[in-house]
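User: Predict the complex with 2-oxoglutaric acid.
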Amino acid sequence: MNNRQRKQLDAQGYLIFKNLLSPSQIETLLARLEELWALEGDKAGEENYIEPGVRRLANLANKGDIFREVYAHPQVLEVVEAVMGPDIRASMVNARDVPPHTGVRMPFHMDSDKGRVRDEKGYSAATAIWMLDEFTVENGATAFVPGSHLLDKSPKHVLADLNASHPDEIIIEGQAGDVFVFNGHCWHAGRPNQTNSHRRGLLVHYLRADVPRPENRRQHLDAENAAALSAQERILLGLDDEPVKI
Ligand SMILES: O=C(O)CCC(=O)C(=O)O
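Assistant: Here is the predicted structure with 2-oxoglutaric acid placed in the model:
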């Protein structure tokens, strides 16, 4: 991150990095996601939650080595650490597809668990949305309110209609291979797809290590998959953290 990017992250709450994935990485990732959607059928996403009208997948850290280069990408981790310090955990590693001519506008929300705002240690959430298709206004690119992390308020306590567009929102467009990384306390919302093509992305949610993560906000790895990880990836996934009952 250079100075300009650091200033933008602090003031606006987000950065977009172009072309972080190569066409062959995108192709491999999409092939694996489509395979998983076919295998998991109507249970897809259930380890986290099922969202009507869209296709989701969850616990992807356990579903392919290829996801390691995404959730542990150094350029993204640098931003996440700039948001909330070095002690971070990848809580959710998900896919989300807004299929053609479908999806509803999501309510504006933050990705900090339970509407948590900045505390004495600062911010506690950050998210990376990896674009695997082009993201456009028409196909459901994310709505985002720049600078809303500075308000220290959850949109549900402020906005009269969480489902309406916000006067200050911008739509985060980009190409397949780009990644949109943001302070998870920023207000944002998924949008419907009005086109004939899919809008597929990977969503990686990071939380500060001291934020309790219930079972559906953690990655659950089989022994064989866990054994392949580096020490840094084990820490990032919090595999050795005590389970938390919430
Ligand atoms: O897919 C998107 O555009 C945003 C999704 C999102 O905000 C979420 O799943 O919490």
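The mean pLDDT is 96.
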